[in-house]
Amino acid sequence: MEPVYKNPKTLIDTPTHYCPGCGHGIIHRLIAEIIDDLDIRGKTIGLAPVGCAVLAYNYLDIDMCEAAHGRPPAVATGIKRVHPDKIVFSYQGDGDLAAIGMAEIIHTASRSENITVIFVNNAVYGMTNGQMAPTTLLNQRTLTTPQGRNEKYDGYPIRICELLATIDGSRFLARTSITSPKNIIKTKQLLEKGFKSQIEEKGFSLIEILSPCPVYWRMNPNDAMKFIDDNMTTTFPLGIFKDWESQN
Amino acid sequence: MSTEKNQKLLLTGNEAAAEAAIMAGCRFYYGYPITPQNEILTHMATRMPQVGGTCIQVESELAAINMVHGSAAAGARTMTSSSSPGISLKQEGISYLAGSELPCVIVNVQRGGPGLGDISPSQADYFQAVKGGGHGDYHTIVLAPSSVQETADLVFDAFDLADCYRNPVMILGDAQLGQMMEPVVFNKKQNPNLYKKPWALTGANGRRKNVIKSFYPVKGELEEFNAKLQKKYRQIEAEEVRYEEINTKKADIVIVAYGTCARICKEIVKIGEKLNIKIGIIRPITLWPFPCDIIRRVSERVQAILTVEMSAGQMVEDVRLSVSGRCPVHFYGRTGGGIPSPKEILEKILEIIPIKEKVTCAT
Ligand SMILES: Cc1ncc(C[n+]2csc(CCOP(=O)(O)OP(=O)(O)O)c2C)c(N)n1
């Protein structure tokens, strides 16, 4: 009998360190599936962030590099300039990309660096135990917004896709979620489009994935998925914000 | 510009540093403007495209050092340059490079501090260069040129040292060395010995994956890794110390000075002869590893050692450690763009060495 569902070759068969209900595992698997589907395992180089996904290189069977907190786009640039024929992607959380690494992501987009960024927006700092992130929703409680995020005191959430869409160098920008099988399939299609944009040398691509963090949202995994659908998507609407294909 | 082997060119230290990097096979340079090292970036912007290389004017020193991290991880020869405030910003990145054992070259054309300071010559970054500079137990190899020619030669050597030890190498110059023009010949071997880098990230085609990282979360692993680093540092200390020694054999007093200060001190040796004071000089060329042994040996036979720096006294601490009380160690320094003059240094020497006949100094 031919198995219809198996582990992707690029995904190392080992338990992850992620918390129950975390989205990182699903997203890792999607990346591994795409690398297998496109048959690019031998020419892909990934960047692991400082954040919950710091050990991504333990789960993906490809060449990978660590980057200091916020700097994956710069490190990816340094790699891509040496190996323009390789597929280079960075994997980043919202603290990494939208707080400490904001300058790097904007300038990497403005150079239209031919890399793919996978931006995991879980609206919180996971690794450091759940502080406010730049993407924390208004009224959302975190360790550092114990009464809920208050715009007067804590400022507003930042929308990365919309922000980067103002930059000419951004060639493919999409926001998606992984709250249902349908959304996971959609996410895979968008990720694949990101990798293909790079293969076809279209320039900078970024896929933002709304991803659950049940532990630091203090919810059960089902409620966390519902929170994304009901609350996160109103601040962070899903969709495609830039597409080289439809812009000729 | 194109450089032929053995062709004599009139260049600033900054231009010589940039050109030497290209001669050494560096094809990936990342920089952010800051005086007094702007000529490195502008030279690279013109030259890199001519040799099929990459020069990116980046958004910050953080981006620059992290792009260096990427290109080094990808197996290429790569460099960044800056001046003191920019080097402070790069320090986190340098720590990551050391912790990931990545080879690269960082040029620091020092200016006065602290803070924004000024743009004039200084040696006040000695501590942040030789003591690691960023977090954690690590060292960068630090090379201190004292002429434009030596800048070119040391930049060239820096790439070999970096590759040989898989370690960042810093060139510690200053505004004076970076800005002044001198004749320079690029007479080092044209084909740099590019070391094989089986650890580099090239895509795991037909081999097991490579991972470049500095993170060791499993208890015990980080200590083991640190032990490995320390072993490497001991080897570098044993094999890579470089210094210049002038007139130390029969010296009454020996000056320890590097870079621009060493140049100035050389003028005093002759004046000393006229005054019947035998002055010797030890000029560290590697600031890390520091030439402790020669300083210790010399300290056993001289009346005193004088350290001269364009700082409030930084290298003097390493001189004192090397001497360990075997003779008095004195210090003369200027800060904030002040450059010690031969006259000032000589006056300091006359304070230290009791000469039979009181001679007034007229230089
Ligand atoms: C320079 C620096 N500052 C702070 C930290 C501590 N730190 C580690 S991970 C992290 C936040 C990560 O949050 P995010 O990027 O949202 O990723 P997540 O953990 O939620 O996946 C912080 C602040 C660090 N390692 N380095």
Structure, described:
The complex is a heterodimer of chains A (248) and B (363). Chain A contains nine helices and nine strands. Chain A has 248 residues and is α/β, with parallel strands linked by helices. Chain A has one domain (24-247): Thiamin diphosphate (ThDP)-binding fold, Pyr/PP domains (Rossmann fold), CATH 3.40.50. Chain A has a seven-stranded mixed β-sheet with strand order 2-1-3-4-8-7-9, with helices on both faces. Chain A has a two-stranded antiparallel sheet with strand order 5-6. In chain A, helix 1 packs across helix 7 (181-199) and helix 3 (94-100) crosses helix 4. The longest helix of chain A has 19 residues, at 181-199. Helices cover 40% and strands 19% of the residues of chain B. In chain B, helix 1 runs parallel beside helix 2 (38-50). Classes of the chains: A alpha/beta (248), B alpha/beta (363). The interface between A and B is large, with 35 and 40 residues. Bound molecules: thiamine diphosphate. Thiamine diphosphate binds next to helix 3 and strand 5 of chain A.
Helix count of chain B equals 12
CATH 4th-level superfamily of the largest domain in chain B: Thiamin diphosphate (ThDP)-binding fold, Pyr/PP domains
Helix content of chain B: 25-40%
Output the CATH topology of chain A: Rossmann fold
Give the strand line-up of the largest sheet of chain B.
Answer: 3-2-4-5-7-6-13
N- and C-termini, Cα separation of chain B: 41 Å
Average pLDDT across residues of chain A? 97
Could you tell me which ligands this complex binds, including any ions or cofactors?
thiamine diphosphate
Q: How many strands in all of chain A?
A: 9
The biggest beta sheet of chain B reads: 7 strands, mixed
Please provide the ordered H/E string of secondary-structure elements of chain A.
HEEHEHHEEEHHEHEHHE
- Give the CATH architecture of the largest domain in chain B: 3-Layer(aba) Sandwich
Shape of chain A: globular
Q: What gross morphology of chain B would you assign?
A: globular
Measured on Cα atoms, how large is the radius of gyration of chain B?
Answer: 21 Å
Question: Any idea of the CATH class of chain A?
Answer: Alpha Beta
Query: How many individual domains of chain B?
Result: 2
CATH topology of the largest domain in chain B: Rossmann fold
- Mean pLDDT of chain B comes to 95
GO molecular function, one term (chain A): thiamine pyrophosphate binding
Protein name (chain A): Thiamine pyrophosphate enzyme TPP-binding domain-containing protein
Keywords (chain A): Oxidoreductase
Pfam families (chain A): TPP_enzyme_C
